[in-house]
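Quick board copy: two proteins, each given as sequence then tokens.
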Amino acid sequence: MFGSMIDQSTLKNALDQQIRLILENSLLDRAGELNSLLAYQMGMDGESGSESARGKRLRPLLLLYCTHAVGGRWEEAISSAAAVEMLHNFSLIHDDIQDKSELRRGRPTVWVKWGMAQAINAGDALLGMSQLALLQDAEKRPQEIAFRLFDLFNRTLVKLTIGQYFDLAFEKSEAFSVDAYDDMVAGKTGALLAACFEMGSILGGAGSDQISSMAEAGRAVGRAFQIQDDWLGIWGIESQTGKSALSDLLERKKTYPVIRGIAAGGEFAGLWRKPGKIDYAYAIQLSESLIRDGIKDETEYAYQKEFERVLRLLQEPGIPKERIQPLVDLIQSILHRMK
């Protein structure tokens, strides 16, 4: 029986070791610079690699904490945790190309350093490796469980691409609403987070009711996380977020604050509808008008209420407090994040 407390640094170290092992075992010596490219994306490229370059590792941590919460051993889910982190990074590489984002985690994005063609190839490699990583855990399970894991993992992949489709289409559409936003978030952000909760619960041996409750909590985390990310995309501190301040306004992204600001019909709505490219000075005007219209506070309240819903959902599965507390602590740390 493992104790109720799990040191996060222990999980991250085990995860990093597993990712390194998968990268080393999947590539040939003659793969050349592809090795460096993938290590760079995963934040494991020697001197320039760092904890900030590796990102928060949020998704694999959620999976491991869910496995622990329902009574399982996190050690037996470490390859699946690596799989979701590699799948996440596959999506980030492709998103950065599609969004023409030049910074990721405070460093130039893969496509900026190596070009779009090699970046696409690297993303594809991570997708394949994520499947191989999942196989390491699945092949140790009964056939029914293994099939369920692969089915969930690949359905999640499809949902991710659907969410990205909505996100890209959203930017060209003049008709948008919070409902349309929620459809996009359910795929782009919520799908993988929900899968982490569900996969972790399956790997931990949970019953069907617990798995359903945990998956619903994961979907709620996805919505809360995305609304919070949209808040940070306008009012976050550049040195902490790793991307340009006001970046979402400069790119005319239809994020939660923008949608709510347009719906409010106040000062922001009038400024937003003016045609032309948004420069930094105009983005500051837009940001300040959102504050005066009360949208900054409304957005913060929205994601805080969603996080409160997550914590209520986590009380439903009947999991002992001492086992679920590490998961609760992680979610509460997300609520107070600034990047």
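And the next:
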Amino acid sequence: IGLIETCTEKRVLKPFPRLTYDEAMERYGTDKPDLRFGLELHNLTELLRHTEFQAFRSVIESGGIVKAICLPDCAHYSRKQIDELTEYVKRFGAKGLATLAFTSDGIRSPIAKFLSETELNAIREHTGANTGDLVAIVADKPKIVNECLSRLRHRMGQELGLADPNLMAFAWVVDFPLLEWDEEEGRWNPSHHPFTAPREEDIPLLDTDPAKVRANCYDLVCNGNELASGSIRIHRRDLQDKIFKLLGYSDAEIQERFGHLLEAFEYGAPPHGGIAPGIDRLVMLLAGDETIRNVIAFPKNTAMVDLMFGAPSPVSEEQLRELHLQIVLDDEA
């Protein structure tokens, strides 16, 4: 904070708020929210669970959700502007974007006729929409809905001039899920890495409901960017072994790949952890840039070439022999 306030004219939002992962996803649709402005997401799933509008009801009945974002003073948007927003969210998986424009002459919307007056009033109250506001709604699987609306939120925060470029809005995000279920592979994957410790009180859930286990990890985010990420590591053999088995490793694989680590734990490894800051991203924000390519020490071009050092470059046979490496071309493989 001192560095930022001393070396730049930017202001720092203090104190840093702390959000759980679930709270961040529910309110902002992302685990690295930009807190310089509001535009929070609103969950309409329960309000519309028994709606007669099949486009929403079918999604809810199949396990999906319906969420909305209220865009202030956007009720005047033309059909063309709304179509542009619709095409934008489609890029991230949405099948469409439903809108309700609350004007002084009433509600302007292609879906209003499918919703009851009670439902329309409930949506307006739940989203806090005022006359002149536009409510944008996405219905789909939770992951798609959150991704689409978080992207739309970020875009509109910029377009509406709500994101103050001179404000640094830091926040801690905690209580990430320890594991994620891979539908295609039919197995659990670590959300962070396989050595992250679970929250102590959640350890019993590893045997009954792994999806509810929270990780003892934490991220520092700022203005929609992850600036640092860290965790407390597992230091007990029995717990690490249980995690490996949940991830689908056999006893033989565990011993072959991680036997040295598990053996070390038997000698009394102390609790340990840390955090890795992304200094380049912080410099990017302080410089008012939009990409770290312009601030990192040795940027690469689109061909992944480091122009300063001319890397990658050919190596000599002597260097290959020294490292016991051999180059095998595709046509020789």
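Board note added afterward: The mean pLDDT is 93.
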